[in-house]
Amino acid sequence: ExxxxxxxxxxxxxxxxQVTLRCSSQSGHNTVSWYQQALGQGPQFIFQYYREEENGRxxxxxxxxxxxxxxxxxxxxxxxxxxxxxxxxxCASSWREPDTQYFGPGTRLTVL
Amino acid sequence: xxxxxxxxxxxxxxxxxxxxxxTYQTSGFNGLFWYQQHAxxxxxxxxxxxxxxxxxxxxFSSFLSRSKGYSYLLLKELQMKDSASYLCAVTEGGGYQKxxxxxxxxxxxxx
Lengths: 112, 111
Hints:
The complex is a heterodimer of chains A (about 110) and B (about 110). Chain A has about 110 residues and is an all-beta fold. Chain A has strands at about 5, 10-15, 20-25, 30-35, 45-50, 55, 65-70, 75-80, 85-95, 95-105, 105-110.
């Protein structure tokens, strides 16, 4: 196990609702990255947080937002859910450099 | 932008050797990851290559050629449990370490 935890494991929401996903990083890691993985695809980079600030963002709309807390845990918030948001959401923690990037088990989000 | 190509699917026999190739085109290249992902699970770190050459780690080896934009993952003595998707991912700098994944190669190991 990597020491990265995510909650909840599974979640079902309806279109238009809002969702918050949580991630606790591995001890000693100060960087958290979030990814969306659709079925049969590779993970797509959403954004990265380093020391509580957004440090980079992929091609996702503003309704995808996040936070990182002083203990380096993180949240991913998605507003106005759409059917296409159904995916596995992965967080990965690292110590600044990605060669130590380890993934959590993921949250499976289903939007109906 | 980035372009990462790897075969969609491969089949190999238990006990054999298989090589999974990955080619990439990117600016500001820093390094290349290989991850293993079993169905319904999170990716598991296998290797991270920054310099040219071959790095061996048990049954798994990873090779990188920066000048050719090419990498491969070599799996020896294949076991049934090696059936999984193998993800190639490229990191680039520019103020933060962005990781871009390919779509993955689904490997099926058959008896």
